[in-house]
Design goal:
Elements lengths: L1 E8 L8 E8 L5 E11 L1 H7 L16 E8 L11 E4 L2 E3 L5 H4 L11 E2 L19 E5 L4 E2 L6 H4 L5 H11 L7 E5 L3 H12 L3 E6 L2 H10 L3 E4 L3 H5 L4 E6 L8 H4 L2 E9 L11 H5 L4 E4 L5 H14 L5 E4 L4 H9 L6 E5 L6
Parallel strand pairs: 10-11, 10-13, 11-12, 13-14, 14-15, 16-17
Antiparallel strand pairs: 1-2, 3-4, 3-8, 3-17, 4-5, 5-9, 6-7
Helix pairs in contact: 4-5, 4-10
């Protein structure tokens, strides 16, 4: 027996998203059912819906920046009670047995983790459906607590954009007396500015446009460099780490040359085309070009608590479910400051 749930999804790559009905499993002993209040829209949702990366299966319901309230709990649930605020990000299951799972790095699970949507459900069968829906059922071990001091709508993007930048900033030691560069000011980049500043770092933002440069200052950047200006790039102080949030093809070698010895450019954006690295640009100075992928469940809880402590949330545009297709079109054009978030009560209104 399954539960029929209202959702907003698509049945083909070229088709618009529209209201559909999906099936959610009944609660297992360790499951919670979450009434979804808000769900952010990430570029990955757009790519998956339109099969830009290949491998999408339909019908497809996107959404992996989920904030809601516990509606029901399974018989063995101990972390949550009905009425609690809860969040779900990208990961809804993993093998739980490998070294990475044991160390809280479920995103690197050796046996493959289960994505919240468009992923084969290895435990229950079928395909997972995401947060563009009225409710979701998830094992409590893959659910995080959302502090009630955060604005819920603007906290939703922390579940993906926030953790995606927090994890590498923490791993590479962002903090006081560290110079941290951030390439790009979008959904990820604007969160990176806020979080790196809250960590105590000196933040330099690299952008291609003056309008974004002005916004970087508003968001708290200490310095802004127009990457198209040769003089500004050549006069930029050396950085300890540069976080690359750009998802389009671009030249990373210019940024490798702005690193201190032992510095790293860390990419979290996902360009469709390969990036080329000049060997001399990493050999000179023992530099690294690295990557990072979201974060584990414990670290996702950590970033939510960190953001609550420092009152960090995303800059959002709150939309109704009926505006999702328009939001996808605008997102493709970069026309958003800086995250669309769906008010999910409009799904059933």
């Amino acid at each position: 027996m399954m539960n029929i749930t209202k959702a907003f999804g698509t049945k083909a790559a070229e088709a618009p998203l529209k209201p559909i009905s999906i099936e959610r499993r009944n609660l297992s002993p360790n499951d919670v059912e979450i009434e979804i209040l808000y769900c952010g829209i990430c570029h990955s949702d757009l790519h998956a819906a339109r099969n830009d990366w290949g491998g999408s299966t339909y019908p497809l319901v996107p959404g992996h920046e989920i904030v809601g309230r516990i509606k029901k709990t399974g018989s063995k649930v101990s972390k949550f009670k009905v009425g609690d605020l809860a969040g779900v990000g990208c990961i809804v299951d993993s093998c739980r047995d490998c070294d990475h799972c044991h160390h809280g790095d479920e995103q690197y699970c050796e046996n493959g983790w289960t994505v919240v949507f468009n992923s084969p459900d290895q435990k229950y069968g079928g395909t997972t459906y995401g947060g563009f829906s009225e409710a979701i059922v998830v094992d409590e071990n893959y659910v995080v607590k959302v502090p009630d001091t955060l604005d819920l709508a603007s906290a939703a993007p922390i579940l993906c954009a926030g953790i995606t930048v927090y994890s590498p900033l923490k791993h590479w030691g962002a903090g006081p007396h560290k110079k941290i560069g951030i390439i790009g000011i979008g959904g990820l980049g604007h969160m990176a500015i806020k979080i790196a500043k809250a960590m105590g770092a000196e933040v330099t933002v690299f952008t291609t446009t003056q309008s974004k440069a002005d916004d970087a200052n508003r968001l708290g950047a200490d310095h802004v460099v127009l990457s198209t200006d040769v003089a500004q790039m050549s006069n930029c102080p050396k950085q300890d780490m540069i976080l690359d949030t750009v998802s389009a093809k671009h030249d990373v070698n210019a940024y490798l040359n702005l690193l201190k010895v032992d510095g790293a450019v860390v990419i979290v954006g996902l360009p469709n085309q390969p990036l080329e690295i000049g060997a001399f640009n990493v050999v000179n100075g023992r530099k690294s070009f690295s990557g990072s992928n979201i974060g584990g469940i414990a670290e996702t809880q950590e970033v939510l608590d960190f953001c609550a402590e420092h009152q960090v949330t995303a800059d959002i545009e709150l939309i109704q479910a009926s505006q999702i297709n328009e939001a996808f079109d605008r997102l493709e054009k970069g026309d958003v400051k800086y995250r669309f978030v769906i008010d999910m009560k409009t799904l059933t209104a």
